C-alpha cells in the first residue's frame, strides 16, 4: 500500500478476535483483517487508487469503502469525547483543559500524546485505584513502564515526595515530562530509561503496569528496586496468568488477594524483609 502512495496503513481486527498478549516472537494476526489506508487527495493518483482497490476486492471478496476526511489535528481528535474519571475516593484523571469541582478531589490533567496511559484501560484503572487507597504521603515511588506518566504523576499529586518514571520508549518519557510540567510536579519527577533506574535508593512503592512476560523476567530487578517492607503493585496481567506471576514474585513478596477488572488482574504485596 505504501508503494501505491499511502501515507499510513493500519491492520485491525475485522471480527471479534482480540490479540491481548501474543507469545514471544509471534506476529499477531486475526482470521479476518481490516486494512485501512490513508491517501493524499491527489486527483492524479485516483485512477491508480481505484485499480488497487478493485484488485484487493477481487482477492478478498469485500467491496472497498472510500471516505473523504478533512484535515485535523489528529493526535488530539480522540480527546474530544473524553470526560474526567474518578478512581477510588479522591483521585481524578481529567483531559487537559477540563476541570473537576468535587470536594477534596486530587486531579491529574493528562495529555498522553503518543504514549499509553489514559486511565480508560482496566489495568491502568486498577493501578490508579490502588494508588488512591495506598499511603503515598512523603514516599519514594517508581513507575516502571510509565507510558504517559499517569501513575507517577498521580502518586505525586497524592503526596509522594519523589517519583521515578521508567520507560524504554523515548516518546513515553517525553509525554511524561510534559504531563509532569502540566501538573506542577516536574521538580519531583525523574523520567529515565530502564538502564538509568538506580537501586541505591530503592522505592517505597513500585508500580509496574506492563505485560506478564516482562513482569516474570523483571521479577528480581523490580524486587531490587523496592526497599524491604515496601509495596509493589503489578498489572497488565490476564486472569489465566495470575499464578505464573505469583510464582515468579513469591521469593520476594508477601502477596495480597488479586484485584480484578474484566479479564485483567492487579497483584500487590510487600517486599519481604528477608528473601
Short description:
The protein has 275 residues and is an alpha/beta fold. It contains 8 helices and 13 strands.
Order of helices and strands: EEHHEEEHEHEHEEHHEHEEE
Overall body shape = globular
Total domains: 2
State the assembly state of the protein chains: single chain
Task: Tell me the total number of β-strands.
Answer: 13
The overall pLDDT, averaged over residues, is 85
CATH C-level category of the largest domain: Alpha Beta
Q: Rounded to an integer, what's the Rg over CA atoms?
A: 22 Å
Helical fraction equals 25-40%
Structural class: alpha/beta
Under CATH, the topology of the largest domain can be stated as Rossmann fold
**Count of helical segments?**
8
Low-pLDDT windows of residues: none
User: Could you state the CATH homologous superfamily of the largest domain?
Assistant: Vaccinia Virus protein VP39
How can the largest sheet be summarized? 8 strands, mixed
Strand coverage percent? 25-35%
What is the straight-line distance between the termini? 55 Å
